[in-house]
Amino acid sequence: MENKGLKYLAVNIAILVIVIIVYVIFHNKNDGARNITLSKDDNIKIASIVNAEEEKFKKEAERYGDTVKKIDSVRKIYLNSASDNIISYLNIAYSPESVSSENLKSILSGLTFQEIKSLTPGISLKIKSYFWLSDEKRYYEVLFWSLFGVLCSLLYFLSDFISKGQFKETELPVYIAKLFYAPLMAVAITFAYKNVIGTPAGIDDSSYGLLFISFVLGLFSARMYDVFNRIKEALIPPSDSPKPPPRYAVNGGVSGKDKGGKDIPDAEINKTVIKLINLNEHVEFKKSPSEKNYLFDNLKEGSYSMEAELIIGSDKYKYGPEKFDLKESKSVEVFLKE
Q1: Residues 112, 114, 120: CA angle, nearest 5 degrees
Q2: What radius of gyration, in Å, describes the C-alpha atoms of the chain?
Q3: What are phi and psi of 290, to 5 degrees?
């Protein structure tokens, strides 16, 4: 069994080497790129370039007084000069092949000196890189680096199991399946962070951290499966999830007789205070009737006690306490007496 384990370990190493070779060949034949935003030093340098050209323009404009057409012509010359100097600076800083002069020229054309200084901190440049970290090509990097992570994970576990004599050939389908589902899950997670959840540190076009994160996702692919399980539970709750407990109501009419045996007037009846107590949770509800009728709703199942009291001058009329178990909505008539 150990010899078989060593054979599969050798196959894993061979696959890893082949994937690395394919990765290098593809990257050597297809130039990569990544997007960057200008640094603080870049913005300071660009501001100084613009300020220098603006000062030259102001001095030149003083010679022409109120000649608007001539001043506009001079301004355009110095704005173009500022744009050309900015592009030259960026070409030196980021290599001539990496900056699209025509694209930048179109962005800066027609702007004032102040607008150029305000705009440049937000400019995103696509610069040359060995890695494909720009546009949708970054998902190829995610596939490759998560696959590297899976293969390294398998390399570790195979060598560990073989050294401990715990290698089982029956577990090979699990290892093989990881080679296919882990890279796809890594793409799905990075896509979700980028386009749905919001970009955390490391998952963006301009950061090499995307490569590291993709490798880690492949290395711990079992954790990725747990993440998707939690998403499933949140989006698609199981059909056998517990239903909320049912709610019931208690309602009825309120009436009563005074000392003389006559019906208590409706206006007085509506002043009755009816008290309903949940004996299980020791929760008390109070309510007065409307047009000689009352309603307690949204009640839980359980044992209850109901009582009522009406005070008319010095006379006091009561009902209850009446205890009952509530297992369905029911009607309870309240009759007040001394």
Answers
A1: 95
A2: 40
A3: -120, 120
Extract the tokens encoding 178: 């990881």
Q: Does domain 248-336 have CATH number 2.60.40.10?
A: yes
Question: Is 131:144 a contact under the CB 8 Å cutoff?
Answer: no
CB 171 within 8 A of CB 39: no
Measured in whole angstroms, how far is the alpha carbon of residue 55 from the centre of its chain?
48
Question: pTM of the prediction?
Answer: 0.56
The answer to whether 137 touches 185, Cβ cutoff 8 Å, is no
The single-letter DSSP state of residue 87 is: H
Per-residue model confidence as pLDDT tens digits over 213-223: 999 999 988 88
Q: pLDDT at position 1, please?
A: 43
CB proximity list for 303: less than 8 A, separation 6 or greater: 278, 279, 280, 323, 324, 325, 326
Q: What are the tokens at 123? A: 């400019």
Token digits of residue 143: 């596939």
Give residue for tokens 């955390």: 200
The DSSP 8-state label assigned to residue 196 in this structure reads I
Q: Are 193 and 200 spatial neighbours (Cβ–Cβ below 8 Å)?
A: yes
Instruction: Single out the residue of 264, 271, 278 nearest to residue 294, CA to CA.
Output: 271
SS3 call for 36: strand
Give pLDDT tens digits for 77-128. Answer: 888 888 888 888 887 887 644 555 566 777 777 788 888 888 777 777 777 8
Q: CA 17, CA 177: separation in Å to the nearest integer?
A: 19
Token duo for residue 147: 């696959």
Structural domain boundaries in the chain: 39-122, 134-235, 248-336
Q: How far apart are CA 244 and CA 246, in angstroms?
A: 6
For 325, counting Cβ atoms within 10 Å of its Cβ (0-12 exposed, 13-18 middle, 19+ buried), the class is: exposed
Could you tell me if residue 168 is left (phi over 0), alpha (psi between -120 and 50 degrees) or otherwise beta?
beta
